[in-house]
Specification:
The complex is a heterodimer of chains A (444) and B (481).
Chain A (H helix, E strand, L loop, with lengths): L3 H20 L4 E17 L2 E19 L2 E7 L4 H17 L31 H17 L4 E20 L4 E19 L2 E11 L8 H13 L10 E7 L1 H14 L2 H5 L20 E3 L22 E5 L2 E2 L6 H7 L13 E3 L6 H8 L2 E8 L9 E12 L2 E14 H6 L1 E4 L14 E9 L3
Parallel strand pairs in A: 7-12
Antiparallel strand pairs in A: 1-2, 1-4, 2-3, 4-5, 5-6, 7-16, 8-9, 8-11, 9-10, 12-13, 13-14, 14-16, 15-16
Helix pairs in contact in A: 3-4
Chain B lengths: L3 H9 L7 H11 L6 E17 L2 E19 L2 E7 L4 H11 L35 H18 L3 E19 L4 E19 L2 E11 L4 H4 L3 H17 L6 E8 L6 H8 L4 H5 L20 E4 L20 E6 L2 E2 L6 H7 L7 E2 L8 E2 L3 E4 L6 H6 L3 E13 L5 E13 L2 E6 L2 E6 H6 L1 E4 L4 E2 L4 E5 L2 E9 L2 E9 L4
Parallel strand pairs in B: 7-14, 13-21
Antiparallel strand pairs in B: 1-2, 1-4, 2-3, 4-5, 5-6, 7-22, 8-9, 8-13, 9-10, 11-12, 14-15, 15-16, 15-17, 17-22, 18-22, 19-21, 20-21
Helix pairs in contact in B: 2-3, 4-6
The chains are: A alpha+beta (444), B alpha+beta (481).
């Protein structure tokens, strides 16, 4: 388990890298080092399937010679490998171009306080104990219904990480984190119809994980409800994206307001800052400092202090997602998003999932999405889907082998409601999204 | 020519101060329990990438990865541990952790080190990182940037990335067999954004191989990617809404073979079939596709992106018939699943790196050509879709549902090609769609070498291919009713 001693060792490695980079001619440099240890077990049909002991390490270096940049990384921490890494980064920086936007984030933006975000909660569990948790989880799924006849297994995964980042502004900080999960995937079978579904729970602290049996039962329930799926005829109708599917829509939003998409003019949300992109009740925020948050971090990948903020208020786009490079390209200030967005949340409109189904009256509930059919340059969206058909405000039967298509800009402005059902695993908090209308393709 | 095993020994044993007897001792630790399969996998990899963006060489990256993965298999159980440290102590610790899944009692096996019979080498061993001087790599990127911009004034953005990797692996198994491989891999991608009257569209092309960077200079391949990316983006500028609903779909040759990868490939991987979780489980000998279809997986094709001289368990790669004239003939196997299913290994045991467990994976998966002339296939469709380029795909191997997303497609009207349409996802059920294949062209093509397959969090380079195909009915996910 990473401890204080390991932290000072990693700090020494990072300082050594930065020092060696300067010695080899870098004007400035930044480096990160990480070690991870973990255990992953999987059981299948009650028996041990796999026991994996993970132990990873890696370090990455970016050097700048003037405005030329070079990067290199290594999983080997030997003196020789570190020398090779620094030499490679410096060599590369001789061939890359002068780039006026290149360089470290401004020194004035470095985090000066490192709040304890309660991200480190090791799970004192050995392989035997983890196997028992996984067995309980899978057994609950298999016992849920006689039609659950087969399993891909249930798993328990626990990981301890220690990360240190430093740069030649003199910034060097690091902290340990943990992440644990329990997951289960089972198959339901009825005649020739076979369906698989899965569920999981993941958190920083084992105490915050959902009960293993509850995870199993949810996996069982999900695969059962897929039995007897029908196709739909092709039509235009309202679509209700169940919360875990709606997460993808929020991610598309983020991809379209990332700095690199914007300065490349490769986004359907180009020049939309300050413009209405959602109905006027939509509020979306990012909270990097949420205690125990899965994406929480006191500073970003460039050492810049992170802070909570709104991305969308009253339906208006209030901020982009920038790190210092893209910020300079756009003539703006970094938003502390080197490494991505952290703990997104969209405010709900007060309806439960069942209320949204009633409000939709007739349409498609999407529970699963397949494929990569979203074009962030144009906003064109077309993905495979499965879910449920709703008539008279009630779920009628499961649906599969359909596509849902539209344009993300229209989908955002056609958002009618966001449910209160936001208890989904992961870092994004959203309820289900009811969208006014989309094209659903199926049989004729 | 120095052989791969000699190079692997030098790199992974000599340079790390290890000897074969150390591996033998570590194997002894694994085999002190009841173990059926065990291996020590040593990996050493160097990779480099360059990115041109906005007209300048914006990024360059160099990466070092090495380590040892140690696995013990007992029946259906697998124990696994790995370490970045190529030392005897670290590997012994990993071996002790890995063997903990097995019951006590000594394994019968454990011969002294033997070299397995030699296998053909499917690619050159040269290090692609050194295959061009840096200034020529840079010059190539600039040439492609200029070529793309010169091709049309509507080109606004050009991004070119060049990647070269050189992997060396050494595998020592419970039979004392020692196998080595040295694997070059190169890739070049060009993507462009065009803009006209406020409308923006993108285009992409690229290629790759197990070769050196010279591959891109031969036959003007690199310039071809730049021109192709621009052509595709300009086509998309004209694209109208894609149709929605079920219709006949003609797939072009080459990369659209991603259909086979998703619709049948994953469902024929041994692990899913051993566990009975695939829609193709227990169906050997059955008609699972139209009689026009013969689908193979072939890791032995020379120099292709998905090719392997030996897989990551030391098994030589081969030409494996999966479906012959529509009849399911076989699955793709690694050692563990072959043993448990009482089947032969097929050289499909692959792993992303020493830090990942091997599992059955595709190599180059393609359909053999038929007899139809491609033009006749298009002419046979009254109203439908002709799709020639695709983004990624995905499959649910249990229900058989799969999707793949077209990013260049055209309407077919009365046997003639019509307007280009916007990207649309196609969705179907693997076995059902394979039975709907009614025409197979005589124009088999393999893709240009850009496939990346993801399975259980591990990515692997793969190839796909097919001739022009007609599917009688497939759901097209457009926006136009």
């Amino acid at each position: 388990m990473p401890d204080a001693m390991q932290k000072s060792q990693l700090q020494q490695i990072v300082e050594g890298l930065l020092h060696e980079a300067r010695r080899q001619g870098a004007d400035s440099a930044e480096a990160g080092a990480q070690i991870q240890q973990g255990l992953a077990v999987n059981v299948r049909m009650g028996e041990v399937d796999t026991i994996e002991h993970a132990s990873d390490q890696g370090l990455g270096l970016t050097v700048y010679r003037g405005q030329r940049k070079g990067t290199a990384s290594t999983s080997d921490f030997s003196v020789q490998a570190i020398k090779e890494t620094v030499a490679a980064a410096c060599r590369i920086a001789r061939y890359t171009s002068e780039d006026s936007a290149a360089g470290l984030a401004d020194a004035a933006l470095m985090a000066t306080e490192i709040p304890d975000l309660e991200l480190n909660h090791p799970w004192a569990i050995d392989a035997e104990q983890a196997l028992r948790v996984a067995q309980d989880c899978e057994a609950a799924a298999l016992a849920h219904d006689a039609r659950i006849t087969n399993s891909e297994g249930a798993g328990v995964n626990t990981r301890n990480s220690l990360f240190v980042y430093g740069n030649t502004h003199g910034f060097i900080e690091g902290y340990p984190t943990t992440r644990h999960s329990i997951s289960c995937a089972v198959l339901a079978k009825q005649n020739d119809d076979m369906q698989r579904d899965a569920w999981y729970t993941t958190d920083r602290s084992p105490a915050d994980l959902q009960d293993a049996r509850a995870v199993g039962i949810e996996a069982g329930r999900r695969s059962l409800e897929r039995l007897g799926s029908r196709k739909l005829s092709t039509m235009t109708c309202p679509v209700l994206f169940k919360a875990d599917a709606a997460v993808g829509l929020l991610r598309h939003l983020i991809s379209a307001i990332r700095g690199s998409a914007l300065y490349h003019r490769a986004s359907f949300l180009l020049d939309k800052l300050g413009h209405q992109i959602f109905p006027d009740w939509v509020m979306i925020d990012e909270d990097p400092l949420r205690l125990r948050g899965l994406r929480s971090a006191p500073f970003d990948g460039e050492g810049v202090a992170t802070r909570p903020r709104y991305l969308v208020t009253e339906g208006v786009l209030r901020g982009y997602v920038l790190e210092s490079y893209s910020a300079r390209k756009l003539g703006m200030q970094t938003t502390g998003n080197a490494g991505g967005v952290r703990n997104l949340r969209i405010q709900d409109t007060g309806q439960s999932f069942d209320e949204l189904v009633r409000q939709m009256h007739r349409g498609l509930v999407v529970t699963k999405l397949m494929g990569q059919g979203s074009n962030l340059v144009t906003g064109d969206y077309s993905r495979g889907a499965a879910g449920f058909w709703v008539e008279h405000g009630e779920v009628q039967y499961p649906v599969e082998e359909v596509t849902v298509a539209g344009n993300l800009q229209d989908m955002f402005s056609g958002l009618l409601a966001v449910g209160t059902d936001n208890q989904i695993p992961g870092s994004v908090q959203t309820g289900s999204w009811l969208i006014e209308r989309m094209m659903v393709a199926g049989v004729d | 020519m120095t052989d791969a095993l000699a190079l692997a020994r030098r790199r992974l044993l000599d340079e790390a101060g290890l000897e074969e007897q150390h591996l033998s001792r570590i194997m002894g630790t694994l085999l002190s329990r009841q173990v059926d399969i065990a291996d020590i996998y040593l990996g050493y990899s160097r990779s480099e990438s360059w990115v041109l963006d906005d007209g300048i060489i914006k990024e360059g990256d160099y990466s070092i990865e090495q380590g040892a993965g140690i696995r013990a298999v007992s029946g259906e159980k697998t124990g696994f541990a790995y370490t970045e440290q190529l030392t005897q102590t670290a590997m012994l610790d990993a071996a002790k952790a890995a063997r903990s899944i097995a019951h006590s009692g000594v394994s019968a096996r454990h011969a002294a080190s033997v070299e397995p019979p030699t296998h053909p080498q499917r690619y050159i061993l040269d290090n692609p990182l050194d295959s061009l001087p840096e200034n020529q790599k840079i010059a190539l990127l600039h040439t492609l940037d200029r070529a793309a911009r010169d091709a049309d004034p509507r080109v606004r953005q050009v991004n070119v990335s060049l990647m070269a990797a050189h992997d060396t692996v050494l595998i020592y198994d419970e039979l004392g067999r020692i196998t080595g491989d040295v694997r070059p891999l190169v890739r070049l991608d060009v993507s462009v954004i065009v803009e006209h009257h406020g409308r923006r569209e993108q285009g992409y092309s690229g290629g790759g191989a197990r070769s050196t960077l010279d591959f891109f200079l031969e036959q003007d391949r690199a310039l071809g990617y730049a021109r192709e990316a621009v052509r595709q983006a300009l086509v998309n500028l004209e694209a109208v809404e894609a149709p929605a609903g079920m219709m006949p779909v003609v797939l072009g040759p080459g990369w659209p073979g991603v259909l086979l990868h998703e619709a049948v490939g994953h469902g024929l991987e041994g692990d899913f079939n051993r566990k009975g979780t695939s829609t193709f489980s227990q169906r050997l000998g059955e008609q699972v596709a139209s009689p026009l279809c013969t689908v193979v997986d072939d890791g032995s094709l020379p120099g292709r992106r998905g090719s392997l001289s030996v897989d990551d368990e030391g098994t030589p790669s081969q030409h494996t018939v999966l479906i012959e004239n529509g009849i399911l003939k076989g699955y793709m196997q690694d050692r563990m699943n072959a043993r448990l299913m009482d089947a032969a290994v097929t050289g499909n045991g692959r792993r992303e790196s020493y830090a990942h467990l091997p599992m059955p994976r595709m190599t180059n998966t393609y359909m053999l050509p038929g007899e139809q002339v491609p033009q006749d296939i298009i002419a046979s469709v009254d109203k439908g879709l002709y799709a020639v380029n695709f983004g990624g795909g995905q499959v649910d191997i249990t229900s058989g549902k799969f999707v793949f997303s077209a990013n260049e497609a055209y309407l077919i009207e009365k046997g003639e090609l019509g307007a280009p349409v916007k990207g649309a996802t196609l969705i179907g059920n693997g076995p059902e769609v394979m039975r709907q294949i009614s025409m197979v062209g005589n124009d088999l093509q393999l893709d240009s070498g850009v496939g990346v397959c993801g399975k259980e969090g591990q990515s692997a380079p793969v190839g796909v291919g097919q001739p022009t195909l007609k599917i009688d009915q497939l759901t097209v996910g457009g926006t136009h009713a």
